[in-house]
Design brief:
Largest sheet: 5 strands, mixed
InterPro entries: ATPase_NBD, ROK, ROK_cs
Number of domains: 2
CATH class of the largest domain: Alpha Beta
CATH superfamily of the largest domain: ATPase, nucleotide binding domain
Protein name: Glucokinase
Shape: globular
Strand order of the largest sheet: 3-2-1-4-5
Order of helices and strands: EEEHEHEHEEEHHHEHHEH
Helix content: 25-40%
Pfam families: ROK (PF00480)
CATH architecture of the largest domain: 2-Layer Sandwich
Strand content: 15-25%
Family: Belongs to the ROK (NagC/XylR) family.
Structural class: alpha/beta
Distance between the termini: 9 Å
């Protein structure tokens, strides 16, 4: 790192609707404390979308009164799957279904457009990295963590010594597709959940909005036929309404979310035996909720994570902070770590 204010990196979180940008100085201080969004235009193809990323970059510089000469590097995150170098999967990816995106080097294209080095991180990894650094601060490089980000799917990230583990093909930390034992999670007669990826009984098949739509809610509505959501509400809409019911203590909703929390607990139990992290983070829409509900959810995750006494004494469970800004901030942290101080 350099001294605060000596130079800067920009972080850009690329989403299906908007890009969000932030600025981090060489000393590790963020200059932006809110969302600064511009349209992402990813559905219009790579050329237009890369130009939209450039507009996001230029907009955040104007917002913070910085000159491009003061910026040494840019961090970019997008949904995966993509390679460690930011090449979108040949089969496409979330938000990148158009054939023109398949195999597209989004990192390289942005670097060429901006004339700046660009560091790539997938969006869940970026959120995990930000959670790690926000929690551990000055000792982040001495700590490890695992994060589960519950959204449409189940993303995540593994951080060791303050850096995201990317793996040989850039696909490490795809925690949603880790198989877990479902005995003790599923109710009597409940079908084994199936993931859109083709797996059965992986974490995403339970702990995701898609898992609720495809697997959990259809079963529980048969057990609560008089429930408000069982009365002609389309399953997709019902799934999105479910968190509000959970916040009110609704029995059906709590059954669903407890199964999700148990699934994440099983995932973290595997992590405890595989990498023995210092911290376990949970993020995503499910915890963007009333305090009592998110605290209950996190407590259920902790309760279902089986740790040895020695591990429990040293580990923490926490929520991903500043979730709407976590992606851009994590991308900026990754860029800062990859940029020489001199």
């Amino acid at each position: 790192m350099g001294t605060s204010g000596s130079w800067y990196v920009v972080g850009i979180d690329n989403g299906g609707t908007c890009n969000n940008a932030t600025v981090l100085d060489a000393g590790g201080k963020f200059l932006v404390d809110r969302l600064v969004e511009t349209p992402s235009r990813v559905l219009e193809g790579p050329e237009i979308a890369v130009e939209a990323l450039a507009e996001s970059y230029e907009g955040i510089l104007a917002h913070t009164n910085l000159d491009p000469s003061q910026v040494r590097a840019v961090g970019l995150d997008t949904p995966g799957p993509a390679s460690a170098d930011g090449v979108i999967s040949n089969k496409g990816a979330t938000n990148f279904s158009m054939p023109a995106w398949h195999g597209f080097d989004i990192r390289g294209a942005l670097a060429a457009r901006l004339g700046k080095p660009v560091t790539y991180t997938n969006d869940a990894n970026a959120a995990a990295l930000y959670a790690h650094h926000a929690h551990f601060g000055a000792i982040a490089s001495e700590r490890s963590s695992v994060a589960a980000i519950v959204g449409t799917g189940l993303g995540g990230g593994v951080v060791e010594s303050g850096r995201v583990i990317t793996g040989s093909a850039g696909m490490a930390g795809e925690l949603g597709h880790v198989h877990i034992p479902v005995e003790g999670i599923l109710a009597e007669g409940q079908p084994v959940p199936r993931c859109n990826c083709g797996f059965t009984a992986d974490v995403e098949s339970i702990a995701s909005l898609t898992g609720i739509v495809n697997n959990l809610l259809p079963y529980w509505l048969t057990r609560y036929p008089d429930h408000e959501l069982a009365k002609g509400v389309p399953i997709g809409k019902a799934a999105k309404l479910l968190r509000g019911f959970g916040e009110k203590g609704d029995e059906l909703a709590l059954k669903v979310f407890e199964q999700q929390a148990k699934a994440i607990g099983r995932l973290f139990t595997i992590a405890a035996n595989f990498s023995d992290p210092h911290a376990y983070f949970v993020g995503g829409g499910v915890v963007e909720a009333a305090a009592a509900f998110r605290d209950w959810y996190l407590a259920k995750v902790r309760e279902n994570t089986l740790l040895r006494d020695e591990q429990r004494a040293l580990s923490v469970f926490a929520l991903v902070p500043d979730l709407d800004m976590a992606g851009a901030r994590g991308a900026a942290v990754a860029a800062l770590a990859a940029t020489p101080a001199t």
